[in-house]
TrEMBL record:
Protein name per UniProt: NADH:ubiquinone oxidoreductase intermediate-associated protein 30 domain-containing protein
Pfam families linked: CIA30 (PF08547)
GO biological process, alphabetically ordered: mitochondrial electron transport, NADH to ubiquinone; mitochondrial respiratory chain complex I assembly
Gene Ontology cellular component terms for the protein in this record: mitochondrion
Keywords: Chaperone, Mitochondrion
Source organism: Biomphalaria glabrata (Bloodfluke planorb)
Protein family membership: Belongs to the CIA30 family.
A GO term for molecular function: unfolded protein binding
Protein location: Mitochondrion
Domain NADH:ubiquinone oxidoreductase intermediate-associated protein: 17-123
Amino acid sequence: MPAQYIFDLMLQCLLQKSFFRETNWDWSLFNCIVFKVRGDGRPYNIVLGCNFYYDVNWLNRWTFPLYTRGGPYWQISKLPFSRFYLSHHGRIQDIQEYPCLSLVNSLGITVMDSAEGPFSLEIESIALMYDVNLTEKHAYELFEDRNFQGNC
């Protein structure tokens, strides 16, 4: 019998201009996102969505886990954008690329685990920062392929 997974997604509303036109945030000056949260001990996924022109890239998402300790205390988690990994339709891609931070249009928080019952995640603040000590461009293997062009 397969295990059942609980899935929940909190997605930030898309940023819009006048006449309901979608726009995006320019996060290209930053290299980290900082969360001040109080959780229940479950792992959560932080999901970044970008506004690409071509429809084959519309469901590209960059994901990184946010681990909570549980308990009554707040925790501060700094997640470098270089650690986010590329997925499409929820499947991790074998060709990884850095997130296009000038095209970010959505931020989501996902909980996926097999624990039954309610979950609790309190968010006090979400901030962007530039860490001068962070020098890596991307934490995962970036293969050079002369026949492949990236999105950015």
